[in-house]
C-alpha cells in the first residue's frame, strides 16, 4: 500500500487504502497518522474523516479490551 501512495500521491484513495490496511492489520495508531496526514492534503474528503473516526473508535475499543484483560 505504501507503494500505491508513492505512485499516486495526489489520490486520496491511495491513503484510504493504506490506512484501512493498517487498521485491519491491528496498527490502528499508524492508520490514524496516515489519515491525519492525508487530511492535510485533502481537507474536504469525507471518506478520510469517516475512516479516521472509525480508527479512533477501534482504538478506544482495543484499549477497553486490553484494560479488561489486565484487571
Could you describe the 3D structure shown?
The structure is a single chain. It is built from four helices and no strands. By secondary structure, it is an all-alpha fold.
Q: In terms of topology, how is this protein built?
A:
Layout: H1 2-7, H2 12-24, H3 28-41, H4 46-70
Question: Tags for this entry?
Answer:
4 helices, 71 residues, 82% helix, single chain, mainly alpha
Short description:
The chain has helices at 2-7, 12-24, 28-41, 46-70. With 71 residues, it is mostly helical.
Taking the sheet with the most strands, its summary is: none
The percentage helix is: over 70%
Strand content: under 5%
Rounded to an integer, what's the Rg over CA atoms?
13 Å
Task: Give helix and strand order, one letter per element, not per position.
Answer: HHHH
Which residues sit in consecutive blocks of at least 5 with pLDDT less than 50? none
Total of DSSP H or I helical runs spanning 4+ residues: 4
Backbone shape: elongated
The overall average pLDDT, rounded, is 89
Structural class: mainly alpha
CA distance, first residue to last residue: 37 Å
Secondary structure: number of strands: 0
